[in-house]
Amino acid sequence: MAETGPAVRAPRRGAWDFTLMALTVALLAALGVQSFVGTLYAWWAYRAQPGWEQLGYPAFVDTMNAIAGPLVIALVVVMGLCVPKRLFRRRALVAASALMLAAGVGAGVVARSVDTGLGVYLGLAALIQVAVVALTLANAGGLTYVTEGVLAKTGSGLLHLGFVLFCLVVVSLQGSRWMLPVFWSATLLLVGGSALSFWARPRPTDPSGG
């Protein structure tokens, strides 16, 4: 008879967390490799092909954007999926993630803009993450974190919110009057979240029991 209950649900949640983490690292690594290779090629072309910066550079930028575009979209989707997993259990998580994706796709189709679709998707992810941070500060139960302790959990929540807002700036707020306010908000969240996560160390146990 198959075992059910927390002993089974915990490994499944752990596998889901690991999968999202591995996908995030792989996508970031792919973008890093692309940037490195593109930089080397541009350095070589600038020296080997006279006039490349006028004749070949526009095509180079188009090629780089065509390669990076799917990677960035996939990274945004994966980061969006990382947010609701802290608040919802598996079935509700699937439903919430599907609704976020549907809302993003629908907005993109109506506006005929990938940027708009990604912006709506990230906006919903940001709203969920704000709720997660608020519940974390209130020390509410039911949230899923790898770390322990209120400070570490709050730092993790602020970091996730900062990353989501930063992605929102990159994909949807270029040229908007909201770009700088959201950018600096993301910067403060990333710095504050990093500080809380770094300083949230477990206190040493007093052997005297005091």
Short recap of the structure:
It contains seven helices and no strands.
Overview of the structural elements:
This protein has 210 residues and is mainly α. The chain has helices spanning 6-48, 52-55, 57-82, 90-111, 114-137, 150-172, 179-199. It has two domains: 10-75, no CATH class; 83-202, no CATH class. The chain contains seven helices and no strands. The longest helix is centred in the N-terminal third of the chain and has 43 residues, at 6-48. The chain starts with 5 loop residues before the first helix and ends in an 11-residue tail after the last helix. Mean pLDDT is 76; it is low at 1-11 and 203-210.
Helix content: over 70%
User: What oligomeric arrangement do these chains adopt?
Assistant: single chain
Q: Ranges with pLDDT <50 over ≥5 residues?
A: 1-11, 203-210
Choose one word for the global shape: globular
Largest sheet: none
Fraction in beta strands: under 5%
Give the SSE string: HHHHHHH
Number of strands: 0
- Radius of gyration of CA atoms, rounded to a whole number: 21 Å
Query: Helix segment count?
Result: 7
Number of domains: 2
- Which structural class fits the helix and strand makeup? mainly alpha
Arithmetic mean of pLDDT:
76
* Intertermini distance: 47 Å
Q: Which descriptors would you attach to this protein?
A:
210 residues; mainly alpha; 2 domains; 7 helices; globular; disordered N terminus
Write the layout of secondary structure elements.
Blueprint: H1 6-48, H2 52-55, H3 57-82, H4 90-111, H5 114-137, H6 150-172, H7 179-199
Helix pairs in contact: 1-3, 3-5, 3-6, 4-5, 5-6, 6-7
